[in-house]
Fold this sequence. Notes:
By secondary structure, this protein is mostly helical. It contains 6 helices and 2 strands, in the order αββααααα.
Amino acid sequence: MDQLGVKIGLALTVEVLKEQIGKHLQFCFTYEGKPLRADVTNTAWHNALEKAGIEDFRFHDLRHTWASWHRQAGTSCDELKDLGGWKSRTMVDRYAKFATENLLSAASRIERGGNGRNVVDLSRFRHA
């Protein structure tokens, strides 16, 4: 959300990026006309983590989180591959993980066999 509480979505993000086309010779994100330097970006990231009290978290971890949230929301591997810019489904599998709850739901599809008897009892793994 922005400062006014308006949800910022993908459409707005794309619109903002399109407005930047042609304004910079090579780089999309700049500061005072110069590309953002990794050391400055890293310093800002670490300062933000420290203020938030977050330890052992890399900027790159956000890519894993983003991909995992997509998978858990039902985005297909092929769609996610294109969205993430990966060349193979192997990379999608490396980045996008299912939450335990999603896996439990998938596993419960075979909880009861065709004869109505339990094939495997998953009730002890369910959270209240």
